[in-house]
Specification:
Layout (H helix, E strand, L loop, with lengths): L1 H22 L4 H23 L14 E4 L2 E4 H18 L3
Antiparallel strand pairs: 1-2
Helix pairs in contact: 1-2
């Protein structure tokens, strides 16, 4: 039920906003600015409707730290850094 609803929402946004900008010959930055404004509006509407209470997952390892001399290294951040370097070097990054 959610997928058809969001498909119709995207179709409506395209027909109401983007098609009009394309028809009048608006430049690409103007279209991107309209979509950025729509994104800000939708984000603020969601925050108004459902609240801005941020929730985080409290896992046992989220505050684990590796001490190397005087340095404290957060292990989850270190693992995400290593994963991003591996992903980038295996061809998943920008050329």
């Amino acid at each position: 039920m959610v997928v058809p609803l969001f498909f119709l929402l995207g179709l409506g946004i395209y027909n109401l906003i983007l098609r009009r900008l394309i028809n009048i010959g608006a430049s690409t930055p103007a279209r991107l600015l309209a979509l950025a404004g729509l994104s800000i509006f939708l984000g603020n509407f969601a925050m108004y409707e459902w609240g801005d209470h941020h929730r985080i997952v409290k896992a046992a390892y989220r505050m684990s730290v590796l001490m190397i001399g005087p340095f404290f290294i957060n292990i989850p951040l270190l693992l995400s850094f290593i994963g991003s370097v591996v992903s980038y070097s295996s061809g998943g990054g920008f050329p």
